[in-house]
Amino acid sequence: MRLLHLADVHLGASCSAFGALAANRRRAILEAFRSLPDVAVDHRVDAVLIAGDLFDGPAPDGDLLAATRDVLRRFVDACVPVFIVPGNHDAVTLRLNPYREVARAGRVFVQGEAADRRWPLEDEEGRRLAEKHAVYILARPAFGEPVTVETDDGPLHVYGVAYDGAECRDPLSTFRRADAPGVHVALLHASVHDAPHWRGTGNALVTTGDGLNRLDVDYIALGDYHRHRPPEAFGGPPASYPGSFAALDLTEHGARGFVVVEVSPGRPPVVEHVDAGLRPVASLELDVTGCIDDIAVAEAAARSLSRSAIPTLRLVGEPAFPLDADAIATELRQRHGHAHVVDETRYYAAARLDELAERDTVVGHLVRLGRARIAAASDDEDRDVAQMALRVALRAMGAE
Ligand SMILES: [Mn+2]
Predict the structure, then answer these.
(1) Where would you tag: which of 91, 279, 282, 351 has the fewest CB atoms within 10 A of its CB?
(2) Per residue in 374-384, is it b (16+ CB within 10 Å) or e — as a string?
(3) Cα 178 to ligand 1 centroid, rounded to whole Å
(4) Residue 332's domain spans which residues?
(5) Are residues 244 and 385 in the same domain?
(6) Distant-in-sequence, close-in-space partners of 196: CB < 8 Å, separation ≥ 6
């Protein structure tokens, strides 16, 4: 059986870290999300699992809700059942429930809700209604009976939990495997920590590898952690994080997307990560020692970056000129639309500064004073400020 598993789409996220590209980014994420029904058909998956944080917040705007309903209707039309659990960003609470609005589309059912259509699985008759042409939003704080659908590759049983610490502290302990043939899958939004003393706060479910091991299933579809983590990384439980669907800020570098999972009863799952196709964030460390000026640094960076990348550049080394990170970012933005530059260079140690410090001039005095302040700094923050002050002063003096 093949499953398409995604999480942490964060529809509606501001993407403000992308600067001038933010609006673009929001559109691209929505477009990639809209393409998923076709992607699911192309990959010939039997079902789709969405493991929380589909929305960035508990009150998505009308456009996003309409787009989501449209996507879900297309899954239903394509006969691909969809299972969703809320995450910590789009949690179902007494006051806010983004999924109540989503469930206004036909054949979308939200559990534990007095919606127009009752949850179809409460009784014998209802259970017969559970079929492929539907979307199931598992919104209860504890595991119950799985939702069972008949797929081309046999029965699929999905168990889900919507974490609510006020209702159920330890939802994993409520898991009971149904005695039925087929593939059994657990769907949850949780951070997995292996240190037993680790304690979560707020509305996030925290568990450990041992906790996951208690789930007697063929696959555990997780959400929450924004980096892809394959089952091998768990060393035991058949779990995987797909990671964020698309980079949401400039720390989320590398391939982002979803996973396609091959699951068979009693066998370890085989997980393949698939890129969602958005422009990636590329993280690059560049040693600027030897560069003659800001433009040369920008050009050296550009040579190492693909044009489609959105760069986050960390500068190291000892430049022989008063480097201006903003000027380098401005240069890179022309080519990449947006760029973030972190300056970790050590100008104060450069040979050029040694030379300037020897001089009996205002600049020479400035360098000696600046270096003395850097040397006397009481902590890292103080040192950063002193280094920045020397650099700004030298630039103002035109000491190239
Ligand atoms: Mn998330």
Answers:
(1) 351
(2) beeeeeeeebe
(3) 30
(4) 281-396
(5) no
(6) 208
Q: Domain check: are 263 and 296 in the same one?
A: no
Encoded amino acid at 71, one letter: V
Cα 207 → chain centroid: 19
* Whether residue 289 sits in one domain with residue 216: no
Of the three residues 275, 300, 329, the one that is the final residue of a domain is 275
DSSP state letter for 315:
E
What is the rounded distance in angstroms from the CA atom of residue 187 to the CA atom of residue 205? 12
> How far, in Å, from the CA of 330 to the mean position of ligand 1?
30
Tell me how far the alpha carbon of residue 295 is from its chain's centroid. Answer: 33
**To which H or E segment does residue 106 belong?**
none
Does 266 share its domain with 374? no
Averaged over successive runs of 10 residues, the pLDDT of the chain (400 residues) comes to 98 97 97 98 98 95 96 95 94 82 85 60 59 87 91 94 86 94 96 66 80 94 96 93 97 96 96 97 96 96 96 94 94 96 87 90 94 94 91 82
Q: Is 143 helix (H, G, I), strand (E, B) or coil?
A: coil
Could you tell me which residues are beta bridge partners of residue 81?
none
**How many angstroms separate the alpha carbon of residue 109 from the centre of ligand 1?**
23
DSSP 3-state assignment of 260? strand
**Domain end call among 230, 257, 275:** 275
Provide the number of structural domains found in the chain: 2
In a shared domain, residues 338 and 192: no
What is the identity of the amino acid at 196? P
pTM for the full model? 0.88
Determine the distance separating the centroid of ligand 1 and the alpha carbon of 30, expressed in angstroms: 16
Between CA 263 and CA 219 the distance in angstroms is 7
Q: What is the pLDDT of residues 73-91, one digit of tens each?
A: 999 999 999 999 999 999 8
CA 148 / ligand 1 centre spacing (Å): 27
CA–CA distances in Å: residue 322 to residues 257, 287, 296: 40, 15, 13
Say how many Å lie between the CA of residue 345 and the centre of ligand 1.
33
Q: For residues 86 and 54, what is the distance between their CA atoms, to the nearest angstrom?
A: 7
The neighbouring-strand residues paired with 221 are 187, 240
- Classify 387 as helix, strand or coil: helix
pLDDT at position 121: 64
